[in-house]
TrEMBL record:
Residues 336-374, 421-444 are annotated as: Disordered. It is found in: Cell membrane. PROSITE patterns: IG_LIKE (PS50835). Residues 1-31 form the signal peptide. Residues 421-433 have a biased composition (Gly residues). Residues 33-130, 135-227, 238-332 form the Ig-like domain. It comes from Anopheles farauti. Residues 337-347 have a biased composition (Pro residues). GO terms for cellular component: neuron projection; plasma membrane. Keywords: Cell membrane, Disulfide bond, Glycoprotein, Immunoglobulin domain, Membrane, Repeat, Signal, Transmembrane, Transmembrane helix. This is Ig-like domain-containing protein. It holds the Pfam family I-set.
Length: 490
């Protein structure tokens, strides 16, 4: 009995050893699962889709599971979803890749996600998801309402702009249309800047020029940045100024009168005459106003077809809840010079006509006795022409015609006989010099030439005689000089 028990014990020990050897051999040959790449850390804007990718080799009989690390909640095992969240899903490519998909990411989806293999001990890797949110400005007030955006001139205005977003946004204040922001302190010191940082903008001792739009701009690096407009209003009583305090215009014309009004809130404007009569739009008057900016208006009054009763003071007035103001413009008559009844004849300056010089045509040796009138005309023309020719005569030869007047010629030319000038057949020819004789010119015959030409004839005769004498003396001196030079060289 004891012998059999010993044999059974040995058999059991041998079987156990074989099992251990077999198991040990199998453990050494079977490969363990391994991750080929870590999970990525992801950043995504709220509302978009995102995916985590887990790659595992040698998975064998093991399974891949997805968990949310911070809550330890199992999301999915293999491709089976455990979490009841319709925005979550898992896909497998049939080999070694698993993906966890999150659609329309929300802010509470941010955190750490784990891909785990159920080995002993378990193997896993984690990736972080950051969800960012674009900035947004909270609307604490009802739409189209302002808190602290209205003050009387000289008061204070405080604007508050609260913004949310992930990461936390920064807030800046800018003025609309690029205008400057004037920051004043209690000591009446002011600083002019383009932007102010912070959720609160405080405007002390506001003036009418501070009116307008102010923009609160929130940004955190996640596009898009957002802005909100705040409208600052400064109340003050009207201030009216006349464009011109005195305007003059003639009767039967149109005239334009203008005033500039500054006021807020919007005033009630109008025109009156000096007797208090209110003026209205019509055939006589055209009334209009133009808004120049948030607190400035231009008032226009056109008075048509002026007559005597329209001249006098005009008043432009403005009134709002804070006060009233007006300005006075005096319209007076402009007296124009009377219009001429007849059209004046334009002045044309008179031009003095210069006498036309008549040309002298010599007869070239042909004597003509054409009568007294013809002889007088030729004689005057001859004398006037020779006054100019004698300016450049080198020498003069004086001849006396046999039957005519004494004439002057060049190079020994002789005066012709008869009353004709320059006729052939004269005596004393041959080019010799003779002593000039005193000859008298016949009395001039009246002609149709201007009077001033007739008066100049005697002066021309005197000049001619004088030049003839000077020419004769010059010729004598020239001959004496020639003889002296001849004797010297001989």
């Amino acid at each position: 009995m004891g012998y059999i028990n010993l044999l059974e014990l040995k058999l059991l020990l041998n079987i156990s050893l074989v099992v251990l050897l077999v198991n040990g051999h199998g453990t050494q040959t079977e490969a363990e699962p391994e991750f080929l790449a870590p999970l990525d850390n992801l950043t995504v804007t709220q509302g978009r889709d995102v995916s985590f990718t887990c790659v595992v080799n040698n998975l064998g009989q093991y399974r891949v599971a997805w968990l949310k690390s911070d809550s330890k909640a199992i999301l999915a095992i293999h491709t089976h979803m455990v979490a009841l969240n319709s925005r979550l899903s898992v896909t497998h490519n049939g080999h070694n890749t698993w993906k966890l998909h999150i659609s329309h990411v929300q802010l509470n989806d941010s955190g750490s996600y784990m891909c785990q293999v159920n080995t002993n001990p378990m193997r896993h890797q984690s990736g972080n998801l950051d969800v960012v949110v674009p900035p947004d400005i909270l609307n604490e007030n009802e739409p189209n309402t302002l808190e602290g955006g209205v003050a009387n001139e000289g008061g204070n205005v405080q604007l508050v702009c609260q913004a949310t977003g992930v990461p936390e946004p920064t807030v800046q204040w800018r003025r609309e249309n690029g205008k400057d922001i004037v920051v004043r302190t209690e000591g009446r010191e002011k600083q002019v800047v383009k932007l102010v940082e912070g959720e609160r903008l405080v405007l002390n001792q506001v003036q009418r020029t501070d009116m307008g739009g102010y923009l609160c701009i929130a940004s955190n690096g996640v596009p898009p940045s957002v802005s909100k407009r705040f409208d600052v209003q400064v109340n003050f009583p009207p201030n009216v100024k006349a464009g011109n305090q005195l305007v003059a215009a003639p009767v039967e014309s149109h005239v334009l009168l203008q005033c500039i009004v500054e006021a807020f809130p919007t005033p009630l404007n109008g025109w009156h005459k000096h007797d208090g009569m209110k003026l209205y739009e019509g055939e006589k008057y055209t009334i209009s106003e133009e808004k120049l900016n948030a607190f400035t208006w231009q008032l226009n009054l056109t008075v048509k077809n002026l007559h005597k009763g329209d001249f006098g003071p005009y008043i432009c007035s403005s009134i709002n809840a804070l006060g009233k103001s007006d300005a006075r413009i005096r319209l007076q008559e402009l007296h124009l010079p009377p219009k001429p009844t007849t059209t004046p004849t334009p002045y044309v300056p008179s031009t003095v006509k210069q006498p036309r010089r008549k040309q002298h045509y010599s007869n070239h040796g042909k004597g003509h006795d054409t009568g007294k009138g013809a002889n007088t005309f030729n004689r005057d023309t001859y004398i006037i022409n020779h006054i100019q020719e004698n300016d450049y005569l080198g020498s003069l030869v004086v001849h006396e015609g046999t039957g005519g007047h004494a004439m002057v010629g060049m190079n020994g030319a002789t005066a012709g006989t008869g009353n004709g000038l320059g006729g052939p057949g004269g005596t004393n020819g041959g080019g010799g010099l003779e002593k000039p004789r005193n000859t008298q010119m016949p009395a001039p015959i009246p002609s149709r030439q201007p009077h001033w030409i007739l008066n100049n004839k005697s002066h021309a005769m005197d000049t001619f005689a004088h030049r003839r004498t000077v020419a004769f003396v010059s010729c004598c001196l020239l001959m004496i000089y020639s003889l002296l030079m001849l004797l010297t060289f001989t």
